[in-house]
From TrEMBL:
GO terms for molecular function: oxidoreductase activity, acting on the aldehyde or oxo group of donors. Residues 24-91 form the Pyruvate/ketoisovalerate oxidoreductase catalytic domain. Coiled coil: none annotated. Gene3D superfamilies: Pyruvate-ferredoxin oxidoreductase, PFOR, domain III (3.40.920.10). It holds the Pfam family POR. This is Pyruvate/ketoisovalerate oxidoreductase catalytic domain-containing protein. The keyword tRNA-binding does not apply.
């Protein structure tokens, strides 16, 4: 659970960046889509994978903000506020 001070620090630029690491078929892209849908503001989910087979490493990026202009970018999230790793063998 985050404290009020931690939430203020994370949202000081009005954008929350998340990155999900998973294997194909584990639901990493679905989890990132759920984060966008659950957020009460603007958000975008960008999966990064090709024509991988089941079990190949995948990444997806989530950008959330109350300002729609701040989430309209197609670049990767290099410095996320939060990282979710769904398979510990990816570490």
């Amino acid at each position: 659970m985050l404290t009020t001070e931690q939430i203020k620090e994370v949202t000081k630029d009005n954008v929350i960046n998340l990155r999900f690491h998973a294997r194909a078929g584990q639901g990493g892209v679905t989890a990132s889509n759920l984060c966008v849908e659950a957020f009460m503001g603007y958000g975008v989910c960008q999966p990064k994978f090709g024509a991988e087979r089941m079990g190949a490493p995948t990444e997806s990026y989530v950008r959330l903000s109350s300002n729609k202009d701040l989430v309209r970018t197609n670049e990767q999230v290099y410095g996320p506020h939060f990282v979710a790793v769904l398979d510990e063998t990816l570490l």
